[in-house]
Amino acid sequence: MAWPSWVLLIYVSGLVAWNLLRGRGLGEQLTAALVLLPFLLRMLLIR
């Protein structure tokens, strides 16, 4: 069952924004975003 990629994008961006609003682990969130970005782009390209 494949979810639409935009649902995952909205979920990930919302999660990152929520963590940024909490003001905790800014460097960790940026690192996680940089790590997840290639996977999201790959999913978009495969689709």
What's the gist of this structure?
The protein is mainly alpha-helical. Helix content is 83%, strand content 0%.
Q: What attributes does this structure have?
A:
single chain; 47 residues; mainly alpha; 83% helix; elongated
Biggest sheet details: none
Q: Span from first to last CA? A: 13 Å
- What percentage of amino acids are in beta strands? under 5%
| Rounded Rg | 12 Å
Got a strand count?
Answer: 0
| Range of helix content | over 70%
Q: Poorly predicted ranges (pLDDT <50, ≥5 residues)?
A: none
Tertiary shape:
elongated
Number of DSSP helical runs: 2
Structural class: mainly alpha
Mean pLDDT: 75
In N-to-C order, the SSE pattern is HH
How would you describe what is shown here?
This protein has 2 helices and no strands. The model has no long low-confidence stretch (mean pLDDT 75). It is elongated, with a radius of gyration of 12 Å. Helix 1 (5-22) runs antiparallel to helix 2. Helix content is 83%, strand content 0%. The protein has helices at 5-22, 26-46. With 47 residues, the protein is mainly α.
What's the structural blueprint in terms of helices and strands?
Layout: H1 5-22, H2 26-46
Helix pairs in contact: 1-2
